[in-house]
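FAQ: What does the model actually see?

It sees only this:
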Amino acid sequence: MRLSSRQRALLGFSLLMGLLVVALISYKAYDLGSDFSWETVKNTTDWQSVLLVNVLIGISVTLLILELKWDALRVLLTVVVALLFGYLMTAVFSLDAADDLIRGDFRVQVLSDAPSAVDLSYEQDVTADFDPAAGEARYHFAGSEGDEVTILAYATDAEAGLDVQVSLLDSGGEVLETANEASRRFTRQYSDYLTGETDAVIDGFALPANGTYTILVEPEAGTDPVAAELGVALFSDAAPALDLLYNGPAVGDVFNKENADNPVTEARYTFAGSEGDAITVLAYVLRSNVAADLKVALLDADGNTLVQNSDASREQVETYSAELKSTKDAIIEAFILPADGVYTVYTQPEPLTTGTRLSETFKTTNKAYDAFLLGPLSRLNRWVIWIRDALTLIMLGLAIAIVFRANQFSLGAEGQLYFGALASGVVGLTFGDLPKPILVPVALLSAATAGFLWGLLPGALKAYLGANELVSTLMLNTIAQRFYEMVLTFQLQPPDAGYTASEWIPENGLLPPIIDLNGDTVTVAVYLLIFLVLLTWVLIQRTPIGYEIRMIGANIKFADFGGVNTRRTIMLTMAISGIVAGLAGAHLAMGIHRKLILNISIGLAFEGVVVALLARNNPLVVPFTGLLYAYLRTGSQVMERDTNISAEVVRIIQAVVILLITAEALVTFFRRRRIQRRGTIELDIGDSGDNNGTTGAASGGTLEGAHV
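And it is asked to produce this:
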């Protein structure tokens, strides 16, 4: 057959698009990057099979264009519009994305090479060797007005002969209180520290003001200093006056914790410093996955801001890599303290502006859609999951396209899938000792038979009892699911199983893999699917039963008038559809899960409806739409995992696709009404066109443009 110039151009364009898709998907699947070499391809696991599947994807693109022509653009535009709407919905879901900049665990730390201005805090003790030559030891702490403190000074070894006295000095060096002995009561009360009367205790002294204080320990007057280990302990029921020490542990909290009654919006931490100390203040998030953007300020004792900063340079992040996580952390580096005293570190998240909120919303949305649209190709195992999911959806799309071509709105593929999975699983579990070349075909034949019989039932109800196929198939789906669950729970589940599932199907009962990536497999179901697609197309386009299906889909009254046995054809149509749906169930049991599990399909058949509708019920186009829809499903999983955006966005996209298809059907409806008013019929009982191949409606006039 000689092709016209337009047909040659269409063929060339479709082949070019197919090759381009093969190249792009292979580039990502083989993770070529800049190392574009044949060796890289050959080092990929099962690279020949990966290439074969990618070529088949390219063929599906070519068939899409050849079969639908300009309608292919309408299919793609339908998906593009749905994706755009999904993008807007993702942006709506991400309106609070900027809240991550003001939420999360944080820490504050003060670093310095200078000695700390304080040595003690409440409920702490220190020990050190007493130097007789120095004749005294000094320790510093910070306190608040009204704090009642108890100070212990003691020799850790009672036999050392060190008799001590302890004095409390204010920040100006004035002695506030002195003690040179420990009574028996104190010795008993603080038995973990005190050893005898030679120790000293200042008990319950109320501090007169906020500030730093000095504990002075020296030998009691009239005694000789001796070398010994000296201990000093500080106790108080009050909260510590200081939160930070130089180079001490970091302190922190959680900013704007979700569901908190009184969320922390700002934080203040105090430390004591001396004039001339060079300090570095760090305010940073606790973990790298916290996105909070912090700022920090240093306040003097009167609350005046001395210095502040809201970020960190990349060099500073590298220098303080143990603490700082990113440039969103804040640092005050090498600041010289102007005086002795207590300073405050003040930190809070950067305030959010409208511009920041919008920027973060679209940044999060873009990141989510990047994972959504490119995620299935980002790793080879994700590519495998996409292809594996697509095989099931394509089978279901084929099953539904068959009945839709007969204009029967059957939704029974879900139940047929369950019976197909159950039949194949039971055969595999029961006859696991049979050789694989025998067991696998028998299991597939069992699944096809189960699907055939469960599809025949609603067909008979429709043909002979006039039962609405939508209602009957939905009810039969429920029966199939409950029967599957009953057999699985009471017959197939092992007694020691921790969840509802059968034993693993023996290796002889599994579909052989052609790609195996650490347990994620693509099986010979690829070849089975090629056979099913071609067989379905031949059945509908090149057989008498296919002609009858298309006639019924165009106009059942016209088919009756033309001598078609519509009852028989409707039954066979639903039964043949059940065969394909049953094989989809076998693929789930024998190729994906490798056992029978509860809820082996959660509405997959209803997603097959979308696949069939997008393909205009054309068997040669179903592979493309099944691949496309499975790609979106896999992308939604990647998006949810990598960006914490709900996969329900894909449900929204699915709903929009259905709405757009419905709207397109309305256009066809009004066009048919217009034709009716003209008194003509325009029938196109072919493999393309709207409404299962129908582009017109019957009326009482003449027959124009009908062809078979």
